[in-house]
Write a structure and sequence with these properties.
Elements lengths: L3 H4 L1 H12 L4 E6 L3 E4 L5 E3 L3 E11 L4 E10 L4 E6 L12
Parallel strand pairs: 1-6
Antiparallel strand pairs: 1-2, 2-3, 4-5, 5-6
Amino acid sequence: MRNAKTLNGTLTKWVINLHQQGYTDDFLTLHGKRLQCVQNGESFSMEELSIKVIDQGFDHLTKTYKYVHAIDTQNGGKGILIADAIFCTPTQYIN
C-alpha cells in the first residue's frame, strides 16, 4: 500500500512549498463563514484575510478534489487552508 504522501503528491508538494515560503499556520473553516487558525485559535471573517487559491489536487484517500489556499492575515500571520471549496474571489488566483 502506498503512503499518504504518494497518494496525495500534489497536495503534499504545495504544503511543503508554502511552508518554505513562511505559510506555516493551518486554517480550518467555521460554518463556511469564518476561518480559524489551528495553532492559536484566532478566528477571522473572510473579509479580514487575503486568500489565494494555489492549486487543486485529487485526494486519493477521500476520493475528492481539494483546493490549496494561501492565507495572509492582517497581523502578519501566514497559513494554509485545504478545503473542498474555493474561498476567494477570481482576482486572487495565483498563476
